[in-house]
Amino acid sequence: MSLSETDALGELAECTDITYSTPPETVEQVTSESFEQIRSLGPYESAYPNGAEVASSGPIRDAHATIFSSGPETITHSTADETTRYVAPAGTLRALIDYRIELPDRVETENETTTWALESTEVDAVRFGVDSEIRERSQSSTPTFRYSLAGKGRRTLWVEARMLATVEKTSTRKTANQTVTETSRTEYQVTVHDSVDVQIYRPSYNVAIAKTPAETGLLAVTASQPYAAYRSAADTDESVRNVWRFYTVGSGSWQTITRTSEAGRETAALQTRPVVVHAYPARTQPSPAPLSRAVRVQADRSTWATEDAPALPSRIAVDVIDASYRRPETLVTDHSHPLEDVLSIRGLVAGTTTTVDVSDKQRTSELRPTTLETTVLSKNETAVVLSVALRDNTTGDRIRPTRRTDAGGVLQSGGRTYAIDSDGTTRILVPARGISTVSYRPKAWDGTGTTYLPSTERVAFHPLTSLGGWVTLGVDALRASIPFVVVFIAGRRLGQLFYGEEGRW
Question: Tell me: the pLDDT tens digits for 169-181?
Fold first, then answer.
């Protein structure tokens, strides 16, 4: 790839007003090629970024070991106070090791001259490690270490470098009879280090399916870590996207570079710097993409963790939500097309797509339709007490909530929510007039046991089905006729006034 192509990719990667639905794969390439342009300047010059910690000892000046990049990685902004740096289990760490030598100036007196000369200098040892374990050694000033991280949890990636310098000191003294020259050698060393705390991105997925006889039904995805999206491996056009979107920006620790020498120092903006992927919540809850009726998020069946929206730096030009959002712990979606047995789940870190064979490794449950049966227990002029029974359409049996089924859930009517009793019935109160709707809303589904479809039943009560209704109807009719009777009598009185008792209109 040419330098212009690299620059173009770098500029595109740092456009923070461009966002992505999945972590872009080109970031690692851009970062790698940017690192190839970073070089040590030689023994008498040092270059370090604004995020470096420099150290000096004797003639060794401005020494540092600074991590350039580690990854693939993604930094998630979950809340205003929480960010997590996720790294892929296998990745690369790059670092810049640099320092410079500055010798004392020549010293001359009337009888003595002292000079210093650099005999040798080198980066003696560069070590890369994870936590307390040393993984690899190098002597390069721009080392690249490949790593593999086992297990889960947090790790500390670190790099340490030791610089050596041997300086020869020569002193020449003149006396009346002779000139005496003395030579000595002194070894100096400086050890510097840098580290980054990371979270291993190795999500485990528990995927379950509840199918109807037509192979449609529910899909439940439970993940140990956040993910970007999932889709059927057989259908590349339809997916369910999580709340996250992604942007890329240059590392804040590599915004400027300072070059130092015996002549002084200068600081300039760094054009070739590592690019980092960031994830932020862009919607209040997951949604299908593209939007269609074929896939629907079942919010009531899913389980959620509610988080406050994060505040991104002002220089980041993306639309982050300004309200709380719901992060799924178990996401349940309803699919009106036949469900495939293979699911492809895209992770938050580039290159971490996982394929899950549901038929082979996971659970498949049965999704059954339900029916609501209503019975009038009592009624008066204003209200009716109903007994509502929840039944399994497949077996005809009454569904009794147990730990082995998800028939728990609730009934809803008239804006009120009713719990389902242990015998599968519920008493609810509805108005004695008009049409009332009773709905069954299943509980959140954890992917185990038989699960059920929601159902709705309408009940209607006519006011003339009771004596009280007829009496009420008569009273209402009488009240409604009063204005007409008043108008009729008034008209008669006016006619008599103008035409007399025998007058006509």
Answer: 999 998 878 888 9
Q: What is the pLDDT of residue 151?
A: 94
* Omega of the bond leading into 290 within 30 degrees of 0 (cis): yes
Please tell me the distance from the alpha carbon of residue 229 to that of residue 330, in angstroms, as a whole number: 13
Closest CA to 14 of 272, 329, 222, 257: 272
**Under the phi-then-psi rule, with left for phi > 0, alpha for psi from -120 to 50, and beta for the rest, what region is 11?**
alpha
Can you give the pLDDT at residue 9? 45
Cis peptide, bond prior to residue 313, ω within 30 of zero? no
**Cα 133 to Cα 154: distance, rounded to the nearest angstrom:** 14
Instruction: Indicate the DSSP class of residue 39.
Output: -
* CA contacts within 13 A on the Cβ side of 368: 20
Q: Which of 207, 230, 227, 228 has the alpha carbon at shortest distance from 218?
A: 207
Mean predicted confidence (pLDDT) in 393-403: 81
Span 56-90, pLDDT tens digits: 999 999 999 999 999 899 999 999 889 999 999 99
Q: Which of 392, 438, 393, 434 is nearest to 415 (CA)?
A: 438
Give the chain's radius of gyration (CA, Å): 39
Q: Each residue of 21-43: pLDDT tens digit? A: 999 999 999 999 999 998 888 89
Residue 254 to residue 37: CA distance in whole angstroms: 14
The per-residue b/e assignment along 285-321, b for 16 or more CB within 10 angstroms, e otherwise, is bbbbeeeeeebbbbeebbbbeebebbebeeeeebebe
Beta pairing partners, 325 = 307
The encoded tokens of residue 134 equal: 């040393």
Q: What is the dihedral of CA 132, 133, 139, 142, to 10 degrees?
A: -70
Order across the sheet with 354-357: list the strands.
287-289, 239-241, 227-232, 342-347, 354-357
Residue with tokens 């889960």: 152
Residue ranges with strand state E in 103-143: 107-108, 112-130, 133-138
Which residue, 69, 88, 95, 74, is CA-closest to 149?
Answer: 88
Angle made by CA atoms 202, 205, 211, in degrees to the nearest 5:
165
Closest to 130 (Cα-Cα) out of 116, 142, 148, 115? 148
Kindly report whether the global pTM for this prediction surpasses the value 0.90: no
End-to-end CA distance of the chain: 106
